[in-house]
Amino acid sequence: MSFRSAMCRNETCTVIQINGARHGRSVSDVLSRILVRSATREDIPALVRISNTSVAEDEDVGFGTPRSESLFSDARWLSAVWEEPNRVRGEELFVAVLDDEIAGFVTTEDRGAEMELINIDVARELQGRGIGTHLVRFVEERARRLGKRAVTLGTSRNAAGTPWKSFSWWQSRGYTVTGEEENEWTQRIGPGVREIRMRKDL
Ligand SMILES: CC(C)(COP(=O)(O)OP(=O)(O)OC[C@H]1O[C@@H](n2cnc3c(N)ncnc32)[C@H](O)[C@@H]1OP(=O)(O)O)[C@@H](O)C(=O)NCCC(=O)NCCS
Predict the structure, then answer these.
(1) Which among 41, 90, 94, 188 is placed 20 to 30 Å from 83, CA to CA?
(2) For residue 57, what pLDDT is reported?
């Protein structure tokens, strides 16, 4: 496969083309039409729609922040805490754009020597086409340029001991487990829930 990647001047967007494909529905075709850029206030309705529909209703019960408590579940809440240009409560937001439509987003937090990937969501109908991987690579490339040692993240294990369905996806993207813990976030989800901490050195 031949890759062509281009960074935007503000270092917050990339375009990757693979084989110059423009038609069809293959992963490489989707990737050839994706741009990652900083989110803007105008993206809020799309961010909320994707956040509310990226997993089936109730699928994440016992695994994730209850929807009723998520800032990303309501456009008014998200709008109220939005800080220009692309920040929400210390997190930076980036969107993957496919043919002018928001296809997914990722949020990150600067933690000194490391970059924490807080949240990643791809529109349900577009999952499995490489968009999530592309967003993760974007975060890793940006963290590397900023001199970070690693990208870190947390996923969850429910009270029955089952990891959230993306756990093996993170492993297949090169992330390894560094520990498990109960904390403020897991306590909000429910008793017995644990956060699986993961890391990829850059
Ligand atoms: C998790 C998520 C971000 C992944 O994004 P995506 O665009 O669907 O994933 P991609 O298309 O980039 O990944 C496809 C690859 O993962 C592999 N894959 C898919 N499911 C997998 C699994 N359960 N375990 C391991 N690998 C898996 C595919 O085989 C493919 O591999 P390849 O790159 O070698 O061909 C997306 O599915 C999503 O938004 N899920 C709901 C929200 C969520 O769970 N977020 C993470 C919270 S921790």
Answers:
(1) 188
(2) 83
Mutate to test the pocket of ligand 1, among 73, 117, 122 (most ligand atoms within 8 A of CB): 122
Three-class SS state of 163: strand
Nearest Cα to 143, choosing from 75, 190, 200? 200
For ligand 1, atom 14: residue with the closest CA: 128
Q: Which domains does the chain have, with CATH numbers?
A: 2-145 (3.40.630.30)
Residues in contact with ligand 1 (CB, 6 Å cut-off): 54-55, 120-122, 127-133, 155, 164, 166, 168-169, 172
Q: Cβ distance 170 to 198 under 8 Å?
A: yes
d(C-alpha 110, C-alpha 129), whole Å: 28
Q: Find all residues with CB under 8 Å of 137, minimum gap 6, and list them.
A: none
Whether pTM > 0.90 for this model: the answer is no
Tokens of 34: 């994706």
Pocket test for ligand 1, best of 169, 199, 200 (most atoms within 8 A of CB): 169
Which portions of the chain are predicted below pLDDT 50?
A: 1-24
Which pLDDT tens digit goes with each residue over 3-38?
333 334 444 444 443 333 333 457 778 888 999 999
**Centroid of ligand 1 to alpha carbon of 43 (angstroms):** 23
Query: How much distance in Å is there from the Cα of 76 to the middle of ligand 1?
Result: 29
Please tell me the predicted confidence (pLDDT) of residue 32: 83
Residue 25: the pLDDT is 58
